[in-house]
Write a structure and sequence with these properties.
Radius of gyration of chain B: 23 Å
Number of helices of chain B: 13
CATH topology of chain B: Rossmann fold
Structural class of chain B: alpha/beta
CATH architecture of chain B: 3-Layer(aba) Sandwich
Helix content of chain B: 40-55%
Strand order of the largest sheet of chain B: 3-4-2-5-1-6-7-8
Number of domains of chain B: 1
Number of helices of chain A: 18
Number of strands of chain B: 8
CATH topology of the largest domain in chain A: Rossmann fold
Structural class of chain A: alpha/beta
Strand content of chain A: 5-15%
Largest interface: A-B, 82 and 82 residues
Order of helices and strands of chain B: EHEEEHHHHEHHHEHEHHHEH
Number of strands of chain A: 8
Oligomer: heterodimer
Strand content of chain B: 5-15%
CATH superfamily of the largest domain in chain A: P-loop containing nucleotide triphosphate hydrolases
CATH class of the largest domain in chain A: Alpha Beta
Distance between the termini of chain A: 31 Å
């Protein structure tokens, strides 16, 4: 990836054009899934073979892509747009490249993904059977399913290695905060860490004929503590579970490190999706600090759900005059004076309320702008009055993302001049 | 039907960004106004309630915000120490065991550990006795993470029981399950916005919890309902007055004002379209809270919402 491309004026376009991986991060409810889909579509419109990877039991992305009626195989890419076609009207898009891209989407089923991961990790059928039959493993599987981070990161690294796509857009899970997500690979490696493996090595396997007193007396104090925490009865099963993973630990660590390296590499950019509101703002602040602390490359903000009221509402005097003129007109057309006054008062109230929301939004966006600094893009997306249901609407959003970033550039250029 | 505030625990959840914390705070203030001694528990590490009371964050130990209202923040490591201390009986031994970074890493990395320790902590809090031997709190309001986490929470007691069939953790799992699945003790409050996707997901969650775990949602709170500003007749009367009247038609300030009326009308309409389905799902257990036109709700606003919650719960009984 050349530096000149990334420093090109529109940071959002530069990221979509030149990165291998875009990671959408942000609190829930800010439109992260829809934004990811729009970024993916933009990638395809820009001529890249694109995949949107989403962890999405509600299948929201499918709805946004107009695919919700299809039965989809889990954890497999599904074609959304084979090649960008004129059916979508991209032939007239100003963002079109000579080469047409494609768009795939992939829904992650974490529970199935966890099974697949274990299968990949344990190529020995006997060992695999042992793990799959272990009751600790069986009981933990739904828990793994409920925390899709690890599985998502695993799949991500594989997909990137496959070189099947030019661009992968990752929609991070809604149920977890970003810190948990990024640490997922590391966390699992911690769970099955060498230290823990060492103590459990002293515990006999289930069915092995050693009396508990024999091993517990000889083992470390930590072992005794674990026995008291969990009950001695369970320890052999835990021991077996850990032993099954012992041989694949180095491979697991290597994979986790490779994913980590990918997230930090120059081909990756993080895009923070946010919305106006004090809470969202504080969360964006936390996220930025986290990315910085972890040395993860941050590209910019997508600010969704912005009211974008007409600027004229700030002019109190003119607004009042207009309302008065309207009231006079209503009376002249036969409305009772009291009624007309009441109506225009309510109109003014509505305008003033939305104006105040708009001011709050503007102040929040300004804070985000300062937070991001001049090197990051910031694009504002207005609040839609209904959800995105069609590809056409999604394409409009993709275009809006680019235009928003361009407007922001103009704005900063004007501010400098 | 069991009144909302007559339970001992309320779990408040919903899709991200729907105002869970605001609603949890309103429930807590509402219950306090009804004379309950309330503990508000925030699960997420970034506190939203503490700033309303001039605090930076929610402490790990309950602290009094005002008479009748305490606040605490869930902290994984703190709860882990509590759990280990209880099981090992000796606090120093628990500290020693958890000082080992492998032991600590093992616990903190365990799948579902957050859910397990949260439930454990909650069942301990529920049992805490006050100075007079009665319970210290009548009601514990929990500001939970998003829906997915809470849906997983109901599977935790079974999971723990599957792993630990006997022993100390099996007992703990039984206690946790008894608290979580007793509709007289624990209530579930789902928060949504009057928008398509949040409503759809709320109904999906409610159905899934009923089918999978037999959990009946105690209340659905629709947050941020836009007030009725002008009705459709009034809007068309306005449009008629402006139409063909050049000075008004060309007035951008007036078109700004009419834009606002239109936006508000559209949002009120959307809410009205979505409400019947919610009402059909939970009947009288639907609580509507108005949009306050603020991006950050101050304490006064929380109390305004609390008043609405109380009115809605009174109506029901």
């Amino acid at each position: 990836m050349s530096k000149s491309v990334l420093s090109s004026a529109n940071g959002l376009l530069a990221a979509v054009d030149s990165c291998d991986l875009l990671v959408a991060v942000g609190a829930g409810g800010v439109g992260k899934t829809t934004t990811s889909a729009a970024l993916g579509l933009l990638g395809a419109m820009r001529g890249r073979r694109t995949l949107v990877l989403t962890i999405d039991p509600a299948r929201r992305l499918l709805q946004a892509l107009g695919l919700h009626d299809r039965t989809l195989p889990p954890n497999e890419p599904v074609e959304v747009l084979p090649r960008m076609s004129d059916a979508l009207g991209v032939g007239h898009s100003p963002h079109q490249h000579a080469v047409l891209g494609s768009l795939d989407a992939m829904m992650l089923d974490p529970e199935i993904g966890a099974e697949q991961m274990v299968e990949r990790l344990l190529p020995d059928p006997a060992l695999r059977e042992e793990v799959m039959g272990n009751r600790i493993y069986r009981a933990l599987l739904p828990a793994l399913g409920a925390s899709p981070d690890l599985v998502a990161l695993e799949l991500l690294a594989d997909l990137h290695r496959s070189k099947r796509y030019d661009l992968i857009v990752l929609d991070t899970p809604p149920t977890h905060n970003t810190a948990d997500f990024l640490a997922a690979g590391q966390t699992f490696a911690n769970f099955i860490n060498e230290g823990v493996l060492k103590w459990f090595a002293k515990v006999p396997a289930p069915g092995e004929n050693k009396k508990p007193s024999l091993w517990s007396r000889g083992s470390s104090a930590a072992m005794g503590v674990l026995g008291r925490l969990f009950g001695a009865e369970i320890l052999p099963d835990i021991a077996q579970f850990f032993r099954s993973f012992r041989d694949v630990m180095p491979a697991m660590r290597a994979r986790s490190e490779a994913t980590d390296a990918l997230l930090r590499s120059d081909v990756t950019r993080f895009v923070a999706v946010t919305a106006p509101g004090e809470t969202s703002l504080r969360e964006a602040e936390h996220m930025l600090a986290l990315l910085q602390q972890e040395g993860l490359p941050f590209a910019g903000f997508v600010v969704n759900r912005v009211l974008q009221a007409p600027t004229v509402l700030a002019d109190q005097q003119r607004v009042q005059q207009s309302a008065a003129a309207l009231r006079a007109r209503l009376i002249s057309t036969g409305m009772a004076e009291v009624e007309a006054a009441h109506l225009s008062a309510r109109l003014l109230e509505g305008a003033s309320r939305l104006h105040h929301l708009d001011r709050a939004d503007a102040a929040h966006i300004e804070r985000l702008r300062r937070m991001g600094g001049s090197k990051r893009f910031l694009t504002v997306v207005p609040q839609f009055e209904h959800d995105i249901h069609t590809l056409g609407e999604l394409r409009d959003l993709s275009t809006r993302l680019v235009d928003g970033a361009a407007e922001d550039l103009d704005r900063s250029a004007r501010a400098l001049a | 039907m069991q009144a909302l505030f007559e339970r001992t625990v309320l779990l408040v959840t919903g899709k991200g960004g729907v105002g869970k914390s605001t609603v949890a705070a309103a429930l807590a203030r509402g219950a306090r106004a009804e004379g309950k001694r309330v503990l508000l528990v925030e699960f997420e590490s970034v506190s939203r309630v503490a700033p309303l009371f001039g605090r930076k964050e929610a402490p790990t130990e309950p602290v009094q915000l005002e008479p009748g209202l305490d606040l605490m923040g869930f902290d994984l490591l703190y709860s882990l120490h509590g759990f280990a201390g209880d099981q090992l009986k000796v606090k120093a031994l628990a500290r020693l065991a958890l000082a080992n970074r492998h032991v600590r890493g093992f616990f903190l990395a365990m799948p579902a550990i957050k859910s397990i320790l949260f439930l454990y902590h909650l069942h301990r809090l529920e049992a805490v006795h006050g100075p007079r031997g009665d319970k210290r709190w009548d009601l514990i309001v929990c500001d939970m993470p998003t829906s997915g986490f809470v849906a997983g929470l109901y599977g935790v007691p079974t999971m723990v029981r599957q792993i630990f069939r006997v022993g100390p953790l099996a007992t703990v799992a039984n206690d946790m399950g008894a608290l979580l699945f007793d509709p007289l003790r624990t209530g579930l409050v789902l928060v949504t916005l009057p928008e398509e996707m949040p409503v759809l997901e709320t109904l999906e969650l409610r159905n899934a919890l009923r089918e999978r775990h037999g959990i009946d949602t105690s209340a659905i709170v629709v947050n941020g309902v836009y007030p009725e500003l002008l009705d459709h007749d009034e809007l068309s009367a306005l449009a008629g007055a402006v139409d063909g009247h050049a000075p008004l038609e060309q007035d951008d300030a007036l078109s700004g004002v009419l834009w606002a009326a239109d936006v508000l009308r559209g949002r009120a309409d959307r809410a009205a379209r979505l409400m019947p389905e919610l009402r059909e799902a939970v009947g009288g257990r639907l609580i509507e809270l108005p949009h306050l036109f603020q991006r950050q709700i101050p304490l006064g606003g929380i109390d305004e919402l609390a008043g609405r919650v109380r009115a809605a719960t009174r109506e029901r009984t």
